[in-house]
Amino acid sequence: MAMTAWLPKLETGSDPKYQVIARAFAQAILNGQLPAGEKLPPHRSLASELRVTTGTISRAYAELERQGLANARVGDGTYVAQARAREAAPAPSIARGAASSPSTLIDLGQNVPQPTAEAQVLVRALREIAGDEALAAELLQYAPEAGLMRHREAGAKLFARAGMAAANPARVLVTQGAQHALASVLRAVTRPGDTVLAEIVSYPGIIGLARQLRLHLVGIEVDHEGIVPAALDLACKSLHPRAVFCVPTIHNPTTATMSGERRDAVASILDRYGVLLIEDIVPAMLLEAPPAPVAARLPEQSFLITGLAKSVAPGLRVGYVQAPQAWCSKIAAVVRSDCWMTAPLLSEIAARWIENGEIERLDGLQRAYVETQQTVAREVLAGVAYRHAAASSHLWLPLPEPWRAAEFAAALRQEGVLVKTADSFVIGRNAAPHAVRICMTGARSIAALTRGLSIIRATLEHGLEGEVAAPYAP
Hints:
Elements: H1 17-30, H2 43-50, H3 54-66, E1 70-73, E2 77-80, H4 83-86, E3 106-107, H5 118-130, H6 133-139, H7 149-161, E4 172-175, H8 178-189, E5 195-199, H9 204-212, E6 216-220, E7 222-223, E8 226-227, H10 229-239, E9 243-246, H11 260-273, E10 276-280, E11 302-307, E12 319-322, H12 325-339, H13 344-355, H14 358-380, E13 394-398, H15 405-414, E14 417-418, E15 420-421, E16 435-439, H16 446-460
Parallel strand pairs: 3-14, 5-6, 5-9, 9-10, 10-11
Antiparallel strand pairs: 1-2, 4-12, 7-8, 11-12, 13-16, 15-16
Keywords: Aminotransferase, DNA-binding, Pyridoxal phosphate, Transcription, Transcription regulation, Transferase
Protein name: PLP-dependent aminotransferase family protein
Pfam families: Aminotran_1_2, GntR
């Protein structure tokens, strides 16, 4: 992630300097000059530029964190917070015009499922559990690190539904969401300094984990189907990676999905070099008939990960890992050291929904909503060369000249629309494509989505400072 070159111009007055600095940064963040994910200057260099102490900068950044405008990452710096975390922050007046208030923002930056019938289903499940005193007592006790067997069986059923025909409950572990599953696998199979490969534009969760675990994360070239086999082969040959992480179905953020032939090629390369595969199938869960995972071709060197937060509800923090038998005890040991176990109550709720078909019903409702949103996108963005996939709640929008991603996102923010720029997803120091991810389910209504996409289209059709952009056709 590149660090911002923007520096605040400090107003004069009697206010403490840290408040003046914080206010200047807050204004720049809320009017879109500093987009989500942008790295703020290091304390020492900013203090030198502004001729203040590092303690003053620390207090200013702490004030930005308090307002929900920035996040400090231990050992890495301070970053502009993602838009959803900023919605409660007060917007200062902007010299060029007042920024949209949080209540009027259309947040197309966060990938969250649309609420359907989850709350009603949860109430019923809790009533059933509350009516069974013996079960309630069991759920308040310690559970095995890998989860209760009936919860693991439910996870195996979920994997089978996702195309893993030979799903085995003995090889399934329950985790506190898919991100925890990914972290547990990485901690079990890698050591600091190991090389891990991933799509060059990738899910941000793997980027953060690689940094925390001191892994050497290397981006691999992608095309319209995902990882390019020739690039993967070269990287495996020259870098001797420990593992490859990939999202082969409805890739986040590009929406790419590998064909069967591409999956065969990737599996063949990993098999030839003995490289472990960590496959994320979370986005595939909304498909009625997902393609068989790459992991199905390499069951003894693959880790398959899924969860319910993106397809059902963010608060249902239950994830599952299917691992080679030889690795199950090691991953269970990591779970034990992290949190001792996944909360049995949440796991029980998820297992009941999987077993009684509620997950399929809820996914169907979510899928129908996404289909409606995609219909809106087709109508509003007709002729715009965006990328999408069946059952995908997000779109990938490469930008035409003269737009650059940060400037485009800032222009949208001025109009009250939030999107996520490509630099949030790029691994290492690789150049970010000029593109944005648009998450349709972030809109609170179809009307809000229609307005948000209309603003995106109108903004696309104008260049910077009034310059007209080139025609934008597929």
